[in-house]
Amino acid sequence: MQILDSSFAALSDPTRRAILARLALGEATVLELAKPFQMTQPAISRHLKVLETAGLIEQRVDGTRRPRRLAKPALDNIDQYLNTLRRALEANYDRLDNILAEINAPKGDPK
Amino acid sequence: MNKMSLKTEGDRFVVVTRRFAASPEAVYRAHTDPEVIKKWMLGPPGWTMPVCINDPRPGGKIRFEWSDGNGHGFYLTGENLEMEPYKRLVHVERMHLPDPTPDNHVETLFEPDGAGTLMIMRMTLPNEEVRKSMLATGMESGMAVSYDRLESLVA
After folding, report:
1. Does A68 lie in the same domain as A38?
2. Statement to judge: residues A66 and A18 lie in one domain
3. Per the CB < 8 Å rule, is A8 touching B132?
4. 10-residue stretch averages of pLDDT, chain A, 111 residues long
5. Which CATH class for the B4-154 domain?
6. Alpha carbon of B131: minimum distance to chain A alpha carbons (Å)
């Protein structure tokens, strides 16, 4: 599967790479993923959350089950990328605003 | 107050504009002085930049290393290409995730805007593969995923 090759070579965490490889074989629940990875469900859930946030996997509702599966190849992940970039830059520039204000303020000026 | 605009230019570039209530000189320095850079070019809460190298001259090396304090992190390297003090910066950078992403060519302009500065940054829009990789790490362009998402991750 193309989705598993170099796209994910950059994935920093080996567990998440392994989870994606497992999901490429078919959907799985948290419980089903926890066993082979010998991890607790909360630990697996945290990894799944990261993958979900990244738009790489998605949940399906099946009664009370919530199996995870690979997300359909993003038709266009540009918007997602740009939104993430926008929020990150806004946070950084807000921080920079504060630093510039400190630099502008006369030294020793009481607040 | 949302002062920032972020737009694509064709399918190859992203253009960001942002106003700052400080002189072009101050904003330029904030982008070139490592002591200032490491105070604001951070990730989500808790992330720091323990290594911040920026040799502010053409050909000078750039190296930023981010850490989440729990053994996770990544780094960016680059080179300054053109530096016109207080007006314009051109540099190239790449993320190491750990494999290097294709070079991102960034031009940043600092224009006087009343008593402040209008900053215009034009950078390369990474291709789909690189976008996926960056999104998958939860960090991209040396920046953070959104705070609310992060908080839900650590909750």
Report:
1. yes
2. yes
3. yes
4. 32 76 85 87 89 83 90 63 82 93 68 45
5. alpha beta
6. 6
